[in-house]
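User: Could you write out the 3D structure of this protein bound to NAP? I've included everything you need below.
Assistant: Certainly. Input first, then the structure.
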Amino acid sequence: MDLELGGRSFLITGGTDGLGLALARTLRDEGARVAVCGRDEARLVAAKEALGSSALVVRCDVTNATQLDAFIDQTLETFGRLDGAVNNAGRVAASSVVDSSDALWRDDFELKVIAAVHVARRVVPALTETKGAILNVLAISARAAQGSSTPTSASRAAGLAMTKALAHEVAPRGVRVNALLIGLIESGQWVRRANDAGVALEDFYANMVGRAQIPLGRMGAAREFADVATFLLSPRASYVTGVGVSVDGGLSPVI
Ligand SMILES: NC(=O)c1ccc[n+]([C@@H]2O[C@H](COP(=O)([O-])OP(=O)(O)OC[C@H]3O[C@@H](n4cnc5c(N)ncnc54)[C@H](OP(=O)(O)O)[C@@H]3O)[C@@H](O)[C@H]2O)c1
């Protein structure tokens, strides 16, 4: 299937590692131009090397509105058009309500909800011109909240509600909005955690798969996420909007 991505342009928040970087690679390989952002210098340099000279790699913390605006402006100026924006920057925030602070909740909502809304507000005019798409990267806890996983469960549910509401809002402009609900997929965040714990990555993943009891019996690969994301961003998904698709090997207890 030709995904018709040649000459199109995409912006991905947090595309210097893990799922975002895998998606940037896949879009590039399909002939698209990509802009990614992140905070850590070493990851920015590695992403530039991995994505090549056609990619825009920008230092930006998405919780800083000035930096986020500068990233979006630079992308629009460099590429001259935008066909898709992916709200991907995020991290685990697994804590209980009883043990968490207001600050943790504020930080999580700033990162996963406010930044995504900010990006959407800024890119809708450009996406209206190209009949483009927004993709929100969420987690399966958006639909199946977990006691061990607040505030993420709440912020991801907000992201899912925002996806549906925004899809209705911008459909008359020809802009689509969808979400991917992630289960457990191999990425940089797990590599760093395994390193911090002094555990071999293979053992770390095996332990996660065993504890979670993933029906397909393994972690997902970042490429498996990227393939679904690329299709949803492409014009070949032109009649798909306002949906949340799980990429989780069957892990979520709900559809
Ligand atoms: N992998 C999974 O199993 C899984 C499960 C559920 C949900 N998710 C979600 O999927 C998304 C991608 O996760 P991942 O597993 O690929 O994580 P990852 O390997 O840690 O990559 C996260 C990317 O986001 C960037 N980032 C983080 N905070 C940022 C900020 N404030 N501003 C700008 N960039 C930021 C990181 O770069 P810097 O740190 O250098 O800024 C990095 O490029 C996240 O939203 C995550 O919550 C993943």
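Residues 13-20, 37-40, 43, 60-63, 88-91, 111, 137, 139, 182, 184-185, 187-189 surround NAP (CB under 6 Å).
User: Perfect, thank you.
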